[in-house]
Structures are given as structure tokens and as C-alpha cells.
Write a structure and sequence with these properties.
eight-stranded mixed β-sheet; DHFR-like_dom_sf; Riboflavin_Biosynth_HTPR; Dihydrofolate reductase family protein; RibDG_C; 29% helix; Dihydrofolate Reductase, subunit A
Length: 189
């Protein structure tokens, strides 16, 4: 049985992208990238939406030009080995660039629970829109936030409105530049 996690980089005021859709400020330092690389070792399945899948295609089709770091090369290998479930009603299977990816037009909470139950390791739900229903339903086991010391004033929220969950801090770390990594577990009553 797997564990469902939601990981994201977020501004201090709670956004993954600003009001113009820009998220370049979320780019990780080398130190933070190493944490992402380590985190990916535990992930067996990614559940992501069309836009996030498109952003991550770089790693799926990693252009090995020889000038990338060893960490970047290893991240690409790990990403390519992960099973991916792409949730989109506007994509076709022909648009998937990996034989480890499958397309589902919509994802019910029951389907997500089955995916997690059948997984070995972590199942990461990637992207706030795709994760919103799972967060609202309280089925996310862990939240992993990279909190950037920046206020963007609006945009795409990392968490849906109206959710109340009791969380406990499981891990914390601060990086040069002030970004904080916070890992929380959901308290089950």
C-alpha cells in the first residue's frame, strides 16, 4: 500500500504561480534540487494534470547534451522510471510521451484510493488543481511544501479554500536564501 503525498513550491502567501501565471520564482537552488532528487527516489507513481505533465515533459525527454549536472541526469532517470497518471479531458493518449504514462479523463476519489492501495512507495499528486479534491476529502497523508520567502499577491493557490485539516510537523529544513522545507503528516482521528 502506498502513501499519498502532495508536494509543491509555494510563496509565503500561498500561491504556486502569480496572477500572471509566472512561477519562475519557484526554481530550486542546487541544494533544494538535491532534496527533490532524494524525494523522487521514494515516488513510484505521479498523478498530475495536463499542464503539469507538459511542464515535466522536459525530464521525460531529457536532452542529454552532456553539459547537465549529474543530479539533473539522475533526476531525469528517476522521473522516467515513475508511473504517471495524467488527468485530462482535453488530451489524447497520442500526446503522451512515455509508455509509463496513462491518460484518464477524470479521476474519482475511489480511483485515486485504488491507485494508492496498489502502489509501492509514494504516490505524489502533483499540481493544486489535480490535488484539490483529494485535499478536500482528507485523503492526502503528507504535505511537503517548499515555502519561498516571496509574496506574490494572488494567482494559483496551492491549497483549495474551505479545507480544515489537523497536521503535525514531521520535518523542517531551511535553505540558503530563506526557503523553508516543511513536511506535515495528516493526523488521523
Amino acid at each position: 500500500m502506498g502513501t499519498l503525498i502532495y508536494a509543491t513550491t509555494v510563496s509565503l502567501d500561498g500561491y504556486v504561480a502569480d496572477k500572471d501565471g509566472d512561477f519562475q520564482w519557484t526554481g530550486p537552488s542546487d541544494e533544494m534540487f538535491a532534496v527533490h532528487l532524494d524525494r523522487l527516489r521514494e515516488v513510484s507513481t505521479e498523478v498530475l494534470g495536463r499542464k503539469t505533465y507538459g511542464l515535466m515533459e522536459y525530464w521525460e525527454n531529457f536532452p542529454d547534451t552532456g553539459d547537465q549536472s549529474e543530479d539533473e541526469q539522475e533526476f531525469a532517470r528517476r522521473w522516467q522510471d515513475i508511473s504517471k497518471i495524467v488527468v485530462s479531458s482535453t488530451m489524447s493518449s497520442a500526446e503522451l510521451s512515455s509508455d509509463r504514462a496513462r491518460l484518464v479523463p477524470e479521476l474519482s476519489l475511489d480511483q485515486l484510493r485504488r491507485i494508492v492501495a496498489e502502489a509501492q512507495g509514494l504516490v505524489e499528486i502533483f499540481g493544486p488543481t489535480t490535488a484539490a479534491d483529494a485535499i478536500r476529502a482528507g485523503i492526502v497523508d503528507e504535505f511537503r511544501f517548499f515555502v519561498v520567502p516571496k509574496l506574490v499577491g494572488g494567482g494559483l493557490r496551492a491549497l483549495p479554500d474551505g479545507v480544515e485539516l489537523d497536521l503535525e510537523l514531521a520535518e523542517e529544513r531551511t535553505f540558503a536564501g530563506g526557503t523553508a522545507y516543511l513536511r506535515y503528516r495528516t493526523r488521523r482521528v
